[in-house]
């Protein structure tokens, strides 16, 4: 089985949380300081850090430190790769996994 599934499962896991989905939505408008993200949620700073670590570890979000502040942005290349993968697994195609080792079920 192809690694394309293994490569993307972390993204699905990272996005399987409402707060992280909302953070990705916020970052779609551009780079944000962690303090601006935190203002929109009823969570603590350590909880936000946990969410951001998960999003950064899967490659969907990039972080940079400026002084004492962390700024986050979407990794546009990873977002596009993920969109392409999702599209590829949700359309009928000749190289679909369901057609691998196809059996004719007694048909000749």
Assembly type: single chain
Structural class: alpha+beta
Percentage beta strand: 5-15%
Instruction: Please tell me the overall pLDDT.
Output: 91
List the uncertain runs.
Answer: none
CATH class type: Mainly Alpha
What is the overall shape? elongated
List how many beta strands DSSP finds. 3
What does this molecule look like?
- It contains five helices and three strands; from the N terminus they run H-H-E-H-H-E-E-H.
- It has 108 residues and is of the alpha+beta class.
- The chain has one domain: Orthogonal Bundle (Arc Repressor Mutant, subunit A), CATH 1.10.10.10.
- It has a three-stranded antiparallel β-sheet.
- It is elongated.
- The two termini are 28 Å apart.
- The mean pLDDT is 91.
Brief characterization of the structure:
The protein is of the alpha+beta class and 108 residues long. It has helices at residues 3-15, 18-27, 34-39, 45-57, 76-89; strands at residues 32-33, 61-66, 69-74.
